[in-house]
């Protein structure tokens, strides 16, 4: 009798797990279908309003002058033997000084760290990389090439190629996700972790599944699962959606800070208009659901989390919840009026807070800005 009950219990547990998995993927594919329907309606409306220009966009052939600004650093390349990929990065500051490595988000590239490259090169060897699939780095077309383990290994390989065994790691958005993961898997290589507007991956997963409002704000995660169609929607009307992402009142840079200049915007359009560039950027999203939940969660490095109060895409409640996974000093700063693009629209405040974190002792409580 006891064995029958035991077997029945195991059966019910496995059944519950299967139902949970089925529900998880049903939610994902159902939401994908909904987002696709909305996108098709937008495309149809654009064709009605602008029948001659909807399917026109321009590949930028010449980089704007700001991308060759020598005050930002030197353009360098490295080919990683293990992966065979070539990475582009911009570096400044004296070789041999402590390494500060910057990881950008979507849909950005090394240029998003221009204010920090100038600021921290006095005391660090600052390096802002184009992550795989972005900018001048190699662009694997297979979505499988963007699994979390490959992205984390890229960071490890680049740190070691630069001649270091540890670094101060700074990440924003998707770069923040990879920074969290790198600190989890290689704690001995991270002296301090600085993340901008990106929750710990486990916090994001748990929170989004329990809060429909965040699920709605993350609808692009589901839409981007589709092949080819998201690339089309981001390209039509000469990349109108990308321009709006950076400049609109609801999502753009500079609502209470520095505005993105016309030349800055052209820098982004130059990088993202190149053949295959959007596919590389979107492939980060096309592996995310199969990579969660995480098997390891805890971060053992000191952590500074900077959060723009007016982030359109991420709810602020997730920021404080990150404390649950940190086994060291944790400092959280919520920056009033700042957007998702924190390091670009509030660079002075961001730089000051980073300096404070780098120079302060352990164990002090964070504060709200």
TrEMBL record:
Q: Does the keyword Nucleotidyltransferase apply?
A: no
Instruction: Answer yes or no on keyword Oxidoreductase.
Output: no
The superkingdom of the source organism is Eukaryota
The residues forming a coiled coil are: none
Q: Keywords for this entry? A: Hydrolase, Membrane, Transmembrane, Transmembrane helix
> Which molecular function GO terms apply here?
epoxide hydrolase activity
Q: Locate the AB hydrolase-1 domain: which residues?
A: 98-344
Annotated transmembrane regions: 21-45
Q: Which family is it part of?
A: Belongs to the AB hydrolase superfamily. Epoxide hydrolase family.
* Protein name as annotated: Epoxide hydrolase 4
